[in-house]
């Protein structure tokens, strides 16, 4: 059973955070923060599996939704992207404040797919300072090299299955964003996108300060920053 909170972001937007906590625990439990993957949510099968594991292993769990993934369109022109370490930082700091106030024994974080890359990107960016926020992190099935992963998902079986699946939800949400902020991008170009490369070139890259898909994939990848991580990962 999930309990939802809505948190205000520094730019006056919001993120929805779902908590799954023990109703019978007599002592404070560690908190595991799970960052979901592309178009994921607390309803994703892996989030449900993590919540079940946490329930049976003495943990509470929280799933912060990247903007636009909680079922409600966010307010700002921006959405979310694979290297969104600023958003990860804002969220983890808030979780750390909550954990300290509740005298919980620890804060851990994991990320699946896109969420795992963003989490590792954050840890690389923070270096030593990450130790003040979380005890350890884990990245599961994550595209740490976005260029290689983007190429792989745009070809053959992956393109037929995964690319189609993602674009089926990403395009309508992008069009909602265009209706919310007219002139944000060219509608015709978005509708013509057939790969994640095309979609990122029209939507993700320009909306989040990148020059192109190539620039986005290069700068958002966690792989070049893994050597600067200073927490168990």
Describe the protein's architecture and organization.
With 233 residues, the protein is an alpha/beta fold. The protein is built from 8 helices and 6 strands, in the order βββαβαβαβααααα. The protein has helices at residues 45-56, 85-101, 114-126, 146-153, 156-180, 187-192, 196-207, 213-220; strands at residues 3-8, 14-20, 31-35, 60-64, 107-112, 136-140. The chain has a 6-stranded mixed β-sheet, sandwiched between helices. Strand 1 (3-8) and strand 2 form a beta hairpin. Helix 2 (85-101) crosses helix 3 (114-126) and helix 7 crosses helix 8 (213-220). The longest helix has 25 residues, at 156-180. The radius of gyration is 18 Å and the shape is globular. 42% of the residues are buried.
Short recap of the structure:
This protein is of the alpha/beta class and 233 residues long. The protein has helices spanning 45-56, 85-101, 114-126, 146-153, 156-180, 187-192, 196-207, 213-220, and strands spanning 3-8, 14-20, 31-35, 60-64, 107-112, 136-140.
Task: Show the helix and strand layout.
Elements: E1 3-8, E2 14-20, E3 31-35, H1 45-56, E4 60-64, H2 85-101, E5 107-112, H3 114-126, E6 136-140, H4 146-153, H5 156-180, H6 187-192, H7 196-207, H8 213-220
Parallel strand pairs: 3-4, 3-5, 5-6
Antiparallel strand pairs: 1-2, 2-4
Helix pairs in contact: 2-3, 7-8
């Amino acid at each position: 059973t999930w309990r939802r909170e809505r948190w205000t972001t520094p730019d006056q937007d919001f993120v929805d955070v779902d908590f799954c906590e023990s109703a019978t625990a007599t002592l404070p439990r560690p908190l595991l923060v799970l960052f979901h993957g592309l178009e994921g949510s607390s309803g994703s099968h892996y989030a449900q599996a993590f919540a079940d594991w946490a329930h049976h292993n003495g943990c509470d769990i929280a799933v912060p939704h990247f903007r636009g993934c909680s079922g409600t369109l966010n307010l700002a022109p921006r959405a979310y992207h694979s290297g969104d370490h600023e958003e990860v930082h804002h969220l983890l700091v808030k979780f750390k404040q909550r954990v300290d106030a509740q005298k919980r024994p620890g804060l851990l974080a994991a990320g699946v797919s896109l969420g795992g890359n963003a989490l590792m990107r954050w840890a690389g960016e923070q270096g030593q300072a990450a130790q003040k926020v979380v005890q350890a992190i884990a990245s599961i099935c994550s595209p740490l090299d976005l260029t290689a992963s983007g190429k792989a998902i745009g070809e053959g079986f992956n393109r037929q299955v995964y690319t189609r699946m993602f674009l089926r939800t990403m395009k309508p949400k992008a069009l909602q964003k265009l209706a919310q902020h007219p002139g944000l991008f060219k509608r015709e170009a978005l509708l013509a996108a057939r790969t994640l490369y095309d979609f990122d070139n029209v939507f993700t890259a320009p909306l989040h300060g990148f020059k192109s898909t190539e620039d986005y994939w290069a700068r958002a990848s966690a792989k070049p920053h893994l050597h600067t991580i200073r927490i168990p990962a």
